[in-house]
Design goal:
9 strands, about 25% helix, alpha+beta, globular, single chain, nine-stranded antiparallel β-sheet
Length: about 190
Amino acid sequence: MGERERKRSWRPPRVSSMPSVKEAARRFCPPYALAEEAPWALRVKLTDPSGRRPDISVGHRHERRLFLKANYLSLSSMVPGHGPEWDAELTFRFRGPFSRQRTRLGWAAPVPGGPEWLAQAQGPLLQAVRGIEAVQSLRMRWSAGEGTWRVRLETLSGSMMSGFMTPLPVAVPFDQREAESFIALVDALAAPGP
């Protein structure tokens, strides 16, 4: 193989993002503890040893664009709690940095009993979300039949990024404060209803 062929066949080494996932998961400990690792799925399951809080799943979701490859940090939980009488989804509108407090919370569609529930829960939910940096997406779906919230948050914090100018992935830090804010979000959804 000549020099030219070697140059064309060179690719950056593959780097697993599992160490980054485990590092983000450690930010939840305590009060959570690492329960299960799934390296092939880039996912770690966390449990609360006291049994008071629901499990949290910490992982990476891969996304590839023209000049960007990203493994976004994905946090999810199924939270038993209270909500409106019908199935619903809460949406957040993010406008500008959180320090300017231009975040709005509302229902994706009108829900019977939704405004009353939201009036009580809005303060703690907004406070929790403001502690999480660089939110890419946040979905909170309520299943009235199951009495469960399905929460899924994706954030740039705790992710691994690479692109055209940086062939090797760069880890973005995930702070303890952000983990505490996600726990506060779970706690707010699990709080007793009106």
